[in-house]
Amino acid sequence: MGKIAILAEKPSQARAYADAFKIKKKEKTFIELEPCSTFPNGAVITWAVGHLVELKEPKEYQKEWEKWSLGSLPIIPQKFEDKVVSKMYTQFHAVKKIFNDPQVTMIYNGCDSEREGSNIFYSLLKMTKVNKPVKRLWINSLEVEEIRKGFNHMQSNERDLLMYQEAKTRQISDWLVGMNCSRLYTLLLQKKGFRGSISIGRVQSPTVYLIYKRQQEIEHFKPEKFYEIEGVFKAQNGVYKGKANLKTKERAEAVQLLQQHGIEPQDTGLITSVTNKMKRIAPPKLHALSTLQAAANKRWKYSPSHVLKLTQSLYEKKLVSYPRTDSQLITHHEFAYLNDSLANYQQLVGKSFHAINRGNNKRYVDSANVGEHYAIIPTKKVPTEKALQSMNADERNIYFEIVNTTLAMFHQDYQYDEKTIITNVKNVAFKTVGKTELVKGWQELFSSEKELQEREESLPVVFQEEMVQSKVSILEGTTTAPKPYTEGQLITMMKTCGKSVEDEEEIEVLKSIEGIGTEATRSGIIETIKKHGFIEVRKNIVSITPKGALLCRAIEGTLLSSPSMTAKWEIYLHKIGHGEGSAKHFIESIGKFINQLIAEVPKQLESLTIEAEQFKPAVVKDIVMCPTCKVGKIGLRKSFYGCSNYKNGCKQTFPGRLLGKKLTEKNIHDLCKIGKTAMMKGFKSKNGKQFNASLRLVEGKIEFEFNEK
């Protein structure tokens, strides 16, 4: 065997691979390794930078597809082709040169161990036109030991090729829907007075529609009054409350029940039953990406994309396992090393407890059902105090969430005593249920979290056949509207196609549904619909914008608004990845779907009315003369400040936010007029530390100026 060429997905991954071996030399576009037992004739590691190649644009297939017109639809090339991303030519040619090196006899795919990693590798390989044997690196951790083990047990590329087929088919189908439907709906809506463009996506559009549906439910909700009968009971050892088994929309029904039994506002009751039942709650499951995103959003209001970025950073620091996983299980191998390192993790979080061995509990450890990647868990590498301090606050939060959830697997069940009291008042039974904590168990690991500090009122000690004084009254309540989604709940909404899943049992029932998107892409989809202006997120609450509502009204009744249809598409794409489906058949079905939309949508939109005024671009308020061109005016444009003379080449801009601090109009005025702002408080550095500084404008760029003291 000759020299090995290894393609990593990005430079940081390539450096991690190289650190596991002896480096011969480093260059801008590759790292060469010394010969060793793993690579007897040496190896060279190069990298993509995400996608080095992408699908061609419509105009690159046919010139008439460049202009947006209804007459040019549908845009369906006979054959789909890739091209090199314009800014990536240098790295592409470096990869091509290495792959073509006569000394290289084998190529290793070292991109991320998932479908998109397969797509990145094979799309690039095909562009280089190199035909050499390929093997697949499949690892879940960037620790040195795991990297060496992975390279010593390279896999064949059979499964890799199937995953490439799935990812490429998904990419092509998204391209077809996006290119055709965005033009179709934009042009038809512009005829009705809409200004701007509408982006349509196979996955993003039904996602927006699910949010729209929730908002419609909230807006059209009509509150209704209801009535219950409550008793407040005074026993020998204290006071407790109970409710009769009645909930009615008619107050008269509650009044009639009290009169029928002759119950007075002040009466006596008899405790007919006191039962105690010990209950337990098992530790939570280990984290998949989606459950980690949901937990982090609930506790710290982090967006799903931010959580993925943080977890990816921890993965690259070799502290946690592969983040883009949909599994909440580990194999016996991972359980063994976690068990061996348990004392170190306990010391890290400052919580010592007697460990329960759950190595045979299939809730956590099930080698047969792990899938492509196991759950997100800490690696064997336990960070030092210095390493912890080098993390920013958000990274630390995510790391300890992963560690504590993993430690919980070894902890005792949470145990509590559930007491049920039945109090009889003139043959009307009032039920009271209370909880008393017995064993805190795994919840002690999360004791600082507010949601785990909630406690129900404890009940007094009472006895069967005890007489009590009762105060009975009719309570009036009002039904409440559904709550809007938080950004973290969007991930679960996408996984379950919008079905309500409040408890774990329901999630288990729905786990066979693929949902919308994939574990790796859902946070990106949320960012996309935010970027296109279809939704807004304020204080973690998601709402539909007028543009988003227009999109949903336009696609209502079509398959573009159908989450279940999108889920079925995802299921079929998954079949392609397992060799059970046909990419050709799927793309052809997408083509038929597009042709059907082109035929039917114009008629469907005839009755749609648009309030064009709400889509007029906002008038830009001029703040100050541009310090660069001295001609244009600096004004606020959506999320940044820019020069009105940009069409003539002025590129002067200022960010709307800088290191977590909003820049006000006065800040921008002072920068442009006098070149400096007053001292500003509350900037946040990359490691999470706050600092104060003035801003100075130096050659059109902002610089920090610190107090000399």
- The helix fraction, in percent, is 25-40%
> What is the number of helical segments per DSSP (H or I, 4+ residues)?
20
Question: How many strands appear in the DSSP assignment?
Answer: 25
Main sheet makeup? 6 strands, mixed
- Low confidence ranges: 449-454, 505-510
Order of strands, widest sheet:
2-3-4-1-7-8
- How far the N terminus sits from the C terminus, by CA atoms, comes to 64 Å
| Percent strand | 15-25%
Can you walk me through this structure?
The protein is an alpha+beta fold. Helix content is 35%, strand content 21%. A hairpin with a 5-residue loop joins strand 23 (680-684) and strand 24 (690-698). Helix 6 crosses helix 16 (522-531) and helix 8 runs antiparallel to helix 14 (487-495). The longest helix has 33 residues, at 158-190.
